[in-house]
Amino acid sequence: MPGIDLHTHTTASDGTATPRELIRLAAEAGLSAVAITDHDTVAGLPEALAAGREYGVTVVGGVELSVFDGQRALHLVGLFVPQSPGELGEALARARHRRHDRNRLILEKLAALDIPLDYDAVLALAGGPGESGGTGEPGGPGVAVGRPHIAAALLNSGRVKSMKEAFERYLGATGLAYVPKDKMSLDRAVSLLAAVGALPVLAHPYLLREKGRSMERLVAGYRERGVAAMEAYYSEHSESQTREYLALAAKLDMGVSGGSDFHGEAKPGVLLGRGRGRLFVPESVLVALAARRDGMAGRP
Ligand code: AMP
Ligand code: ZN
Ligand code: FE
Ligand code: FE
Fold first, then answer.
1. Strand residue runs (E) in the chain
2. What pLDDT, in 10s, does the model give residues 135-191?
3. 112 C-alpha vs ligand 4 centroid, how far in Å?
4. How many angstroms is it from 64 CA to the middle of ligand 2?
5. Residue 79 near residue 179, CB atoms below 8 Å
6. Is the Cβ atom of 38 under 6 angstroms away from ligand 1?
7. CA 299, CA 212: separation in Å to the nearest integer?
8. Cβ–ligand 1 contact at 15 (below 6 Å)
9. Which atom of ligand 1 is nearest to the CA of 181?
10. Are residues 283 and 1 in contact, defined by beta-carbon separation less than 8 angstroms?
11. Beta strand pairing call for 58-68 and 184-185
12. Is the separation of the CB atoms in 228 and 200 below 8 Å?
């Protein structure tokens, strides 16, 4: 059975492969389907869909959202997001706008540390897919600009030697120039996704750092709040974590998803469809998710 990858990032957010390059890589890797799940944007989708037709790869629209459940931050991947996602699209545009405000605050903190970076240089590094329509957004139409682009600017300035060092010293949660992101509520994200017939998926559950009964309680709560599936297959999951999450999804009647979180050169070592080498997401995962989406109430 061919493999698939339902969690990927392109140049529309912080990946380094254009949507077209990503689809070409998928075809080369023998993947039958890929979801494009950029942070806060669906701008990569038109180019990916066109490339998918050319290369014979099924392309699923998606997005990754940073949300707050009232107590902690988590990521949702929305799958089956349409090209023009209505109210969700407007919320994504606002999130991208807030990113610029946050990025400028980060640059102010860096400047105070005697590391002056030019925001235009950061935006130039973020330049997204070339072919989408012009909206005059900084960094390119629909492009979500974030910390990885600032990290790349730090790297270019010679002030750090790696992306890892950029996050550890400056941009990460314990870094000197850290600025938290202001996040959408989980419930709002679920309702925006459901309104366009998209399926809300709990991304990379291992990052919740819970297991056993406490993990079950937490995820059962998300299920109650409308999160329909979880990523059991993920680049950073051990085999035992994958087994645990498959069992948990079955117990809670949640769907199962999976993907690499491919970012190209921005995450060296994570391969499309293969993760760190042992990832394999069977095609049957997408078939089951599509059936679950079709059974969802309230879709248009
Ligand atoms: P942002 O959305 O601007 O907050 O940036 C978050 C993104 O930064 C994540 O999706 C990762 O791609 C990347 N990232 C987060 N932490 C690290 C790290 N320690 N090293 C490299 N990249 C990271
Ligand atoms: Zn990312
Ligand atoms: Fe994530
Ligand atoms: Fe991601």
1. 3-5, 33-36, 58-68, 73-79, 184-185, 199-202, 229-234, 255-259, 281-282
2. 568 888 899 999 999 999 999 999 999 999 999 999 999 999 999 998 999 999 999
3. 30
4. 9
5. no
6. no
7. 33
8. no
9. 4
10. yes
11. parallel
12. yes
